[in-house]
Amino acid sequence: MFLCPQCKRTMTMPQCACGYVVPEQNGIWQLSDAPDMITMGEGDKYIGYEHIGESYSGQRKFLIEERDALFAKVISDKAKDGIFLDLACGDGCFTVPTAANGTRIIAGDISNRMLSILKKKAAHNGISLEQTVLCRMNALEIPLADESVDVVVANSVLHLISNPQRVISEIWRVLKQGGIFLCGEDAPGKNPGAILDNSLYNEIVNSLYGEYWKRLSALGILPKRYRWKFDREATCTALFSRREETMVERGMPYETPLKDGFLPRFLGRGFSDQADVPPALHEEVTKALLSDFEKQYGADFAEISFHGVEDDLQIIAYYK
Predict the structure, then answer these.
(1) Per residue in 285-304, pLDDT tens?
(2) In CATH, which superfamily holds the domain spanning 2-190+225-252+311-319?
(3) Omega before 14 within 30 of 0, i.e. cis
(4) Rounded distance, CA 278 to CA 51, Å?
(5) How many Cβ atoms from other residues are within 10 Å of residue 221's Cβ?
(6) SS3 call for 85
(7) What phi, psi does 103 have (nearest 5°)?
(8) pTM of the predicted model as reported, rounded to 2 decimal places
């Protein structure tokens, strides 16, 4: 079901009939030699998270969130005894809980570092990846045969690519007839009645990020963004035969301090629009900003938390 990186024909891993042997690195099959990020020049561009690594999820990188476990249950129910492709799987937020359900999985990402974190996350939670194949792959050219998988999820990746339509077309190609492209969206749920005041938290985040880009923009460095307004619905409606939508209610209160969520990701250049910021300059600017904000908000401002109510989980299934 895999496509040979050299001759592009169907192969049985790890060696193709053409003689090509797929390299393996730390338990990850190297099915693409494309750069982890392309933000300049002609052709399709994309932002990978190789440079982000463990900064992506901050202090919560090994935690299986309740939302992700709920979505994983839906994935497993849809896949049944078939194969689930977690495209741009990142740190395994869906792969790991889905693997716990016994589902057969192909987990693909352009970043070896993120795939390595996925392995650590599974080990930390005592979850076997025996039925999971980890692959370095490019979502713009999925190295799988036509009609070879039953369910595909492509979470938080389409906005990182200058040509998201091509990714959707690739997803459609590798899905079997009757296969499902599954999307999970956050939808505002029921407020339990608490009045949540996050004004100080929001003030700090907005001011910190705004000042960061103000200083960088003065040096000619601008945020890197692609298709934040991409119309997935229109593209999928044109390709897929039908659409189903369900809602999973949640609504539990939660709180996340700056030190566990926003700050580790921000300081680690973990937001996609930070992709082109030179590391040394990023460190210089953030160091100065943190000093300024400690003076303004106190040395322990990182302890300030966001208080919220979990969104409901809207699940959209597009059937081939």
Answers:
(1) 999 999 999 999 999 999 99
(2) Vaccinia Virus protein VP39 (3.40.50.150)
(3) yes
(4) 11
(5) 17
(6) strand
(7) -75, 145
(8) 0.92
